[in-house]
Amino acid sequence: MATQSRTDPLTLDVIQLIAGVVARYHEEYDRAAATHALTGAQARVLGLLSLEPMPMRKVARKLKCEPSNITGIVDRLELRGLVERRPDPADRRIKLAAPTEEGMRTAGHLRDALDFAREPLAELSESERTVLRDLLRRMLGEDDV
């Protein structure tokens, strides 16, 4: 089977649609973050940490940015009382960034404010959402998850 050109009309259309989704996601995240006097980056880090405490290197890897950037963001979140550093119970040499109770509440408010995709996704069947999730994972090289 021949591979599709990366410039065929369908591929270009998909790329534009993905770019539109990403732009809307960032706009909405930035708007929601501003209501809590946070930057979009701070809100994204807090949202990620609300799923599970993790070392800052892992946060950087997941968000595709430099660990030093994450350190600065976590420092500012810590000053606000939204995040704390604690030893990893599995390896006390490693520090985990973890949300405080206030950080968990704020992350919940941020998640509740992000509804640009919620309604369109709700209109898809469970099997359509599963296919979409699996295709996105495959595009990101995470299809073995």
UniProtKB/TrEMBL annotation:
Residues 11-141 form the HTH marR-type domain. Keywords: DNA-binding, Transcription, Transcription regulation. SMART domains: HTH_MARR (SM00347). SUPFAM superfamilies: Winged helix' DNA-binding domain (SSF46785). InterPro entries: HTH_MarR-typ, MarR/SlyA-like, Tscrpt_reg_MarR-type_CS, WH-like_DNA-bd_sf, WH_DNA-bd_sf. Signal peptide: none annotated. PANTHER family: MARR FAMILY REGULATORY PROTEIN, TRANSCRIPTIONAL REGULATOR, MARR FAMILY. This is MarR family winged helix-turn-helix transcriptional regulator. It comes from Streptomyces atroolivaceus. The lineage of its organism: Bacteria, Bacillati, Actinomycetota, Actinomycetes, Kitasatosporales.
